[in-house]
């Protein structure tokens, strides 16, 4: 393979941004209540600036009963008191901007919390009254309507419908506390256009849109043959509630709002879609009047495999260029097993089964870490933007063995304790080697940290040659100096076990095999683990070369 892939032109900041994902509950706790907060995040802006990122994406920070980690929003125009206030949020945005960092907020339009005033009003109203129309209430089946209107499953397990005291059912594709909104309702549409405006007026630069492939439901309510699975949905045609054509009309409405505001503020805004759809559908979300970017979940699903990763990369680049977007690279987030753990588990491991039954040692941590570093370096050299999940720059692995009584994910609850969910990737960040929560805060953290977090803390790695944190810092600095705007990519034929490409005389080569690979002549800029010796690249390693 030696063809060239063209990269779309455009100088908007998001095209090549390194975006750092902050999970506010677990980042830094300034007030000592065991939960992270906005002041904690503000205090770490110098750390983020030194890391070399371009933007932060804040997971939901709105008032919420936190029955799904904040994706159950009770008020879209405010900040949860446990995280701070709107003034704090504004101060954070200003601090970030002063440090040259953009801010992306998370918008959750598919559902609200059951504590949202609209749902409270809907439940208090009579069946079939207008207040219920903003959600999806229906009569049940069976003689007394005692059966749910359809057989749809909640992504978190159990049925997607719950029955109210008055006999009607409401739809919730996620937790029972997350009623789905009715996106055929004009008030719902107007409300969200206004929420976009609200946050742009407060100063944010972009939006990560939750369940972007959801929103529209087939109102003839056909039954489904398949059970939904957590977040891997949207892969069948004409699905009654995922990836339906009409969703694109809504996206266009939002884009029009962003375009108007771009003109008003004279700055580039962006929306990135969390759309778990089949790879062929992704470009549809990226048409010029829709999203700017969409997360590349296809790559998240790739195991450590040279061919799968190479074709996933090629496809993402070609697809993004076909719609003048830019590719996105994601390895970890708050919903998936941390990637060093994925790459350290034997090929084909069922992650859920491993989380439930172990053994922990099945994961070769050192190998997973090494491979994780090789992959992130490869991604940072590619055209497009990279999303980094907090703690990956410290080399954190999944914490698979949290005590059952602290598990908080609705997946654990709704599956009646048969599926563990996502708590293991949400454990608070270790900042120092000692202290009650390794510098996360003064109190006991909302999820306990394992003892080895001490050695992985920022303090343990800061300024230490060869540490993962320093490798990330070097890689980000070199990326912005040399890779960004290097233009088109040409595959290099180096070895069948390598992913190797060149961008205007700079090359990145990753060794997926078991033996060394001979390198083309060049000057080594950075390697992900052992230095390349005698023009050889060790297994599980990436090197960046300036070709000579
Ligand atoms: C996707 C979010 O990333 C996830 O954390 C959440 O549980 C679901 N959407 C429902 O909002």
Short description:
The protein is of the alpha/beta class and 548 residues long. The protein contains 15 helices and 19 strands. Strand 3 (55-58), helix 3 (86-98) and strand 4 (102-107) form a beta-alpha-beta unit.
Features:
548 residues, alpha/beta, Oligo-1,6-glucosidase, domain 2, 2 domains, eight-stranded parallel beta sheet, six-stranded antiparallel beta sheet, 19 strands, 27% helix, globular
Question: If you had to describe this structure to a student in words, what would you say it looks like?
Answer:
The chain has 548 residues and is an alpha/beta fold. The protein folds into two domains: 14-109 and 187-461, Alpha-Beta Barrel (TIM Barrel), CATH 3.20.20; 117-171, Oligo-1,6-glucosidase, Domain 2 (Oligo-1,6-glucosidase, domain 2). It has 15 helices and 19 strands. The strands form four sheets. Strands 10-9-8-4-3-2-12-11 form an eight-stranded parallel beta sheet. The chain is globular, with a radius of gyration of 23 Å. The site of 1-deoxynojirimycin has 10 residues, from loops.
């Amino acid at each position: 393979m030696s063809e060239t892939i063209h990269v779309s032109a455009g100088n908007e900041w998001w095209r090549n941004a390194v975006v750092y994902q902050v999970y506010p509950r677990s980042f830094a706790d300034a007030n000592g209540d065991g939960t992270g907060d906005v002041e904690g995040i503000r205090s770490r802006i110098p750390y983020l600036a030194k890391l070399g990122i371009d933007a932060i994406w804040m997971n939901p920070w709105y008032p919420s009963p936190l029955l799904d980690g904040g994706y159950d929003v009770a008020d879209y125009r405010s900040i949860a008191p446990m995280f701070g206030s709107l003034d704090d949020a504004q101060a954070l945005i200003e601090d970030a901007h002063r440090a040259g960092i953009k801010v992306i907020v998370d918008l959750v339009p598919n559902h609200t919390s059951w504590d949202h005033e609209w749902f409270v009003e809907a439940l208090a109203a009579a069946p079939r009254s207008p207040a219920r129309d903003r959600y999806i209430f229906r009569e049940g089946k069976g003689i007394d309507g005692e059966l749910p209107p359809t057989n749809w499953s909640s992504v978190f397990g159990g049925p997607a419908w719950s029955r109210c005291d008055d006999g009607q059912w409401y739809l919730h594709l996620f937790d029972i506390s997350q009623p789905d909104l009715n996106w055929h309702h004009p008030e719902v549409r107007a409300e969200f256009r206004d929420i976009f405006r609200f946050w742009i007026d407060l100063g944010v630069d972009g939006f990560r849109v939750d369940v972007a492939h959801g929103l529209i439901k087939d109102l003839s309510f056909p039954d489904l043959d398949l059970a939904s699975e957590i977040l891997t949905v949207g892969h069948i045609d004409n699905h009654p509630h995922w990836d339906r054509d009409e969703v694109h009309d809504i996206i266009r409405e939002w884009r029009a709002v962003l375009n108007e505001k771009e003109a008003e503020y004279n700055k580039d805004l962006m929306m990135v879609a969390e759309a778990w759809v089949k790879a062929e559908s992704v470009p549809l979300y990226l048409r010029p009047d829709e999203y700017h970017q969409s997360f590349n979940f296809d790559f998240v699903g790739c195991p450590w495999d040279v061919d799968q990763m190479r074709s996933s990369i090629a496809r993402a680049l070609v697809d993004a260029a076909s719609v003048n977007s830019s590719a996105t690279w994601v390895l970890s987030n708050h919903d998936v097993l941390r990637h060093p753990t994925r790459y350290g588990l034997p090929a084909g491991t069922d992650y859920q089964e491993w989380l439930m039954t172990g053994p922990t040692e099945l994961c070769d941590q050192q190998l997973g870490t090494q491979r994780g570093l090789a992959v992130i370096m490869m991604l940072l050299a590619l055209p497009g933007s990279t999303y980094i999940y907090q703690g990956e720059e410290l080399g954190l692995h999944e914490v698979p063995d949290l005590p059952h009584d602290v598990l908080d994910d609705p997946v654990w609850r709704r599956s009646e304790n048969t599926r563990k969910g996502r708590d293991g990737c949400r454990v608070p960040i270790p900042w120092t080697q000692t202290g009650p929560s390794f510098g996360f805060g003064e109190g006991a953290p909302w999820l306990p940290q394992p003892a080895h977090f001490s050695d992985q803390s920022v303090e343990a790695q800061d300024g230490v040659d060869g540490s993962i944190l320093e490798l990330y810092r070097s890689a980000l600095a070199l990326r912005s100096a040399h890779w960004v705007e290097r233009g088109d990519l040409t595959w290099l034929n180096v070895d069948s076990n390598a992913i190797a490409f060149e961008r205007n005389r700079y090359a990145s080569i990753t060794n997926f095999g078991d033996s060394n690979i001979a390198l083309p002549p060049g000057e080594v800029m950075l390697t992900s683990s052992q230095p390349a010796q005698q023009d050889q690249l060790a297994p599980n390693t990436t090197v960046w070369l300036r070709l000579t």
